[in-house]
Structures are given as C-alpha cells and as structure tokens.
Amino acid sequence: MELGLSLGDASKPVGFLTKNGASEQHKKNGLGFCMELGLNTNGGNQELAEKSHENDGDDDDDDDQTSEDTRASMENTPIQLDLLPRAPVPRQTPSHLQPLPWSSDNGSSENGSISGNVGLRAAARGLEMNRLPPPPPAAAEEVSSANSVGSPFQMDFGIYINTGNENPGGNDVIETERVSSRASDDDENGLNTRKKLRLSKEQSAFLEESFKEHSTLNPKQKLALAKQLNLRPRQVEVWFQNRRARTKLKQTEVDCEYLKRCCETLTEENRRLHKELQELRTLKTSNPFYTQLPATTLTMCPSCERVATTSAAAPTITTANAKTSTIDSSTPKPINPFPLSRPRFYPFSQTPPPHHHQSATS
DNA sequence: TATGTGGCTCGGGTTACATCA
DNA sequence: AATGATGTAACCCGAGCCACA
C-alpha cells in the first residue's frame, strides 16, 4: 500500500502517488513534499541538455567521482602532478597562486600515472575528498579564520600551493577543510580515514538560500555554487542530497504527528457516534413510534454492514456519488479530522471513498 | 525499432567524524 | 579528561532515466 504524505499548499495536487509520477514531479517541482520547497522550473530540460556537455563530477561513486572531478578539472586546466611531498605554504592571495589541484590528488587514474601523494591515496579504496595532506597548524588556523573574510558569500579558505604558475582557467576550489590532528596523523600514516569538513555558517546559509530556491541542482547551478562558496561540486551535491534527506525526515516526523492527531480525532468521533447510535437504538426500542417523529432512520450499508443514520425526509445516502443530501443544521457536525489548517494531506488517496455515510439526525 | 551499455542523478541507508553537554 | 548524544558530511548501493551505438 502506498501512502502519500504531503504537507503544504492544499491547493496543489499530490502528484507523487505513482512511481513515474513521483519521478516527474520530483524533476519538475523539486520534492514531492511541497512544504517550503519552491518550484524548480529550470531544472528539467535544461539539466538534461547540459548533462552531455558538462562534466562536473556528480557521481556518488567515489572512484567515478574522482575521475569525473579530475576530468572536469583537467578540461579546464592542465594538471601537473606534484610528485614531491607538499611543503606547507602560507596561504596567499589566489591571484598569485595556483590553487592546489585537489583533483590531481585523487584523480590520477585518468591518465594512469599514480605516484607520490597521489599514489598513496589513490591506492586506498574510497578516494575520499578530504584527504589532502593537512596544512601545518598555522595554515589550518588560516583556513578556518578565512571564512569570515570579505563578502559573506565569497569565502576564500582554500589551501593553495604556490606553483609559480598562473591558472587563469583553473578551478578556484581546491581544498576546503578544517583539519583535525587525528586526521592529520592518519593521513601521514597513509591510513584510509574520512576527514570531515564542517561548512561555515556563511556557506550553510548560502546553501540554504539556494535550497529554498530549488531543492535540486542542475550541473550549472552546482558548479556556480561550488565556485561561489569555494567548495567542490561534489560537496555541494552531497550537501543538497543530505538536505533533501533532512527535509524529508522532518516532514515525515510532522506527518506522523499529524496522523497521530488525526487518529485521536477519529477515535473520538467514532466513540461519539457509537454513543449516539446506542442512544438512538435505545430510544427506538423504548418508543416504537419514535421513527416517525424525528424522521430519522437507521440504514445498514450493504457493503460494510455499518449502521448509518439518515434523514427520512431526504434521500438515503449510501454511495459516494450521492452529493445531494439535506443535513439538519442543528445536527452536531462530525469532527473533521483534517481541518483546513492542517497541512495538505489526504491519507486515503484523492479519490473519494467507495461509500460514505451521512450522519444526519434531526 | 528493439536492445544493451554507460553515464548521471537520486533516494535510502549507513558510517565516521566534530561538537556539545 | 572522558564519555555519550547529537548533528551532519561523506559514502555505498540500487534504481531510474537518458543518450548512444
């Protein structure tokens, strides 16, 4: 059974109930869950059109990823593999330095030459991104503190290596990491450990803003974001993936709470109706002429064998298609488990139930 | 036209690390 | 200082889609 959960704009139809529909909806509108997610109007075709032209290293697979990133980097700039142990170099302005080609660190499989630092890491499975040799503590300090420099969204905290060459077309981004001593040790030992980067507040804020605009990225957007934030495209991609997952998780929690309240409401309504039914039965038993007086009859639904109270003056409503019914305004209205203020959600599909009982008493 | 293949992206799940109480 | 909880960056895997041969 597929349960469609959706909160948000109630005026928008739920479009993810079918598998293909889910995919389409996702591509066109971002997430199926529509809460606070804007439309991704430029995602679909443009993305497809760009797919074949851009190689930005989006693959989740590490090996592929590194290859892709390497390729992307190599297309932009010739890469000279650094075969010597990297000497820590104080960070300088990018205009004078060639950014350390992170792709050369792990993407050497592209041209088949693996050596030095590259070889050590490339040999290890995973080829994770934050595995460059860490800068010395002083450099690390600079890396961290550089986040707050300049324009709030033009952060520059990459680690650069002075090659003496200008790199006009090269990637600006290369290494963005805050180093931990533990990871440093592991790296020095050539161990395969994952170093974890914490994005700065500015980076996170900017990514959040972007996410509000579109929860998915096309390659161009990804590259632009990466360049703007001095992150690798892969990092931007991962951030968006994780962000979507977090959104969905939160949405699921909200939906669960909502369903719980709905269940409680329905339970209460059920209890009330049972009580009411009991009273009507009692009344009917004690007073044989009762049925003629309030013009109320009890009818049994043939399909679900439930008792429904219907007004005798009005046609008995037994099918979902019967939309004309007269309900006494004095009748206590049934509890609506899904009031309008609730997030958009129709738990039992958009089609009306096969039959429903009009609880109308007089 | 149908089919196989490779590339790409995604969601779901997991792991590993950083941070905090 | 040690430790458990929590958040999250990064990873792995399978599925779906598309382009191309």
UniProtKB/TrEMBL annotation:
<protein>
    <submittedName>
        <fullName>Homeobox-leucine zipper protein HAT14</fullName>
    </submittedName>
</protein>
<keyword id="KW-0371">Homeobox</keyword>
<feature type="compositionally biased region" description="Low complexity">
    <location>
        <begin position="103"/>
        <end position="116"/>
    </location>
</feature>
<feature type="region of interest" description="Disordered">
    <location>
        <begin position="1"/>
        <end position="116"/>
    </location>
</feature>
<dbReference type="GO" id="GO:0003677">
    <property type="term" value="F:DNA binding"/>
</dbReference>
<dbReference type="InterPro" id="IPR001356">
    <property type="entry name" value="HD"/>
</dbReference>
<feature type="domain" description="Homeobox">
    <location>
        <begin position="190"/>
        <end position="250"/>
    </location>
</feature>
<feature type="compositionally biased region" description="Acidic residues">
    <location>
        <begin position="56"/>
        <end position="67"/>
    </location>
</feature>
<dbReference type="InterPro" id="IPR017970">
    <property type="entry name" value="Homeobox_CS"/>
</dbReference>
<comment type="similarity">
    <text>Belongs to the HD-ZIP homeobox family. Class II subfamily.</text>
</comment>
<feature type="region of interest" description="Disordered">
    <location>
        <begin position="323"/>
        <end position="362"/>
    </location>
</feature>
<keyword id="KW-0539">Nucleus</keyword>
<dbReference type="InterPro" id="IPR003106">
    <property type="entry name" value="Leu_zip_homeo"/>
</dbReference>
<dbReference type="Pfam" id="PF02183">
    <property type="entry name" value="HALZ"/>
</dbReference>
<feature type="DNA-binding region" description="Homeobox">
    <location>
        <begin position="192"/>
        <end position="251"/>
    </location>
</feature>
<keyword id="KW-0238">DNA-binding</keyword>
<keyword id="KW-0805">Transcription regulation</keyword>
<dbReference type="InterPro" id="IPR050762">
    <property type="entry name" value="HD-ZIP_Homeobox_LZ_Class_II"/>
</dbReference>
<dbReference type="InterPro" id="IPR009057">
    <property type="entry name" value="Homeodomain-like_sf"/>
</dbReference>
<dbReference type="Pfam" id="PF00046">
    <property type="entry name" value="Homeodomain"/>
</dbReference>
<keyword id="KW-0804">Transcription</keyword>
<dbReference type="GO" id="GO:0005634">
    <property type="term" value="C:nucleus"/>
</dbReference>
